[in-house]
Amino acid sequence: MPKVLNWIRGRRQPASRDDRRRRRIDLGDKPASFPIYAIGDVHGSLDLLLQAERKILADLAGNPSPALVVLLGDYVDRGRDSCGVLEHLLQPPPAPLRRIALCGNHEQLFGDFLENPQDNMHWLDFGGRQTLLSYGVDFDYFLQKGRLRLQPFKDALLGAIPQTHRQLLSNLPICARVGPYIFVHAGLRPGVPLEGQTDEDMLWIREPFLSRGAGLDLIVVHGHTPVTEPETGPQRIGIDTGAFTTGRLTILKILESGLSIIA
Q1: DSSP assigned state of 16
Q2: Tens of pLDDT along 158-194?
């Protein structure tokens, strides 16, 4: 088992929901001829994301050829600037970078909350309060003797959360395949063909994926489960190094010639 950061232990996912079949990106089964940089869970740490992009550009050392950046989800919650992270992802990446931003379970939770706050209050315990504060919305302000003033709260959400951010949350793809690698937030259900994998598992799974791997002819690059150092398991590489608590946002560099960690 991986050396998981203490603050994740004992935490459970909400009840299962219908598989929504988010978009899946397939760039072909041949190895990429360009560098790929995978970035772990951001969690509202805009400063670390900007720093990561600068490190990638420095690593390219002025090479004008395109490079692909794949972000593994969890852009919101816990950190101070979830709003800023989503706004940044709406902007074109600096040249010569191309960007794919995948969906994480926290984006799913945030989107569900915006659609139906009263049935998705559990999101607030996953760092949602901090996300709302980044938009200037104080959830506790709308509590009166422990009861939520629902309509004023909904009105505040409508005024504070840009439609572009709502659309981004809805449109984030669930996974991206490039050659022998598949990038996904949490992992894959062992023994299930790729076309049979559910969005729910790809956003939430830990075991038995962490100990058994996916059992497919692919290497899974994932986040979701925080570890003290980037780690390899059976046919998988986990790069969520708990940026919100550690200040370390890991970047995995993938070339035809091999892999390396640049941050």
Answers
A1: P
A2: 999 999 999 999 999 999 999 999 999 999 999 999 9
pLDDT, tens digit, 9 for 90 and up, residues 117-172: 999 999 999 999 999 999 999 999 999 988 999 999 999 999 999 999 999 999 99
Judge contact between 235 and 221, C-beta under 8 A: no
Q: Is the dihedral of CA 23, 28, 31, 34 positive or negative?
A: negative
Sign of the Cα torsion 26, 28, 34, 38 reads: positive
Task: Return the beta strands (E) in 66-209 as ranges.
Answer: 67-71, 97-101, 143-144, 147-148, 175-178, 181-184
Query: What is the reported pTM?
Result: 0.92
Nearest to 234 by CA among 1, 75, 49: 1
Of the chain, the end-to-end C-alpha distance in Å amounts to 23
Half-sphere exposure of 251 (CA within 13 A, CB side): 20
Q: How far apart are CA 248 and CA 164, in angstroms?
A: 28
Cα dihedral sign, 197-261-217-209: negative
Phi-psi category of residue 167: left, alpha or beta, with phi > 0 → left and psi -120 to 50 → alpha: alpha
* 180: β partners: none
Among all chains, which residue has been given the structure tokens 């840009």? 162
- Distance (Å, whole) CA 247 – CA 110: 23
Burial environment of residue 154 by CB neighbours within 10 A (0 to 12, 13 to 18, 19 or more): middle
Task: Quickly list H helices, 124-241.
Answer: 128-134, 150-160, 163-171, 199-204, 209-212
- Give the strand pairing for 24-26 and 219-222: unpaired
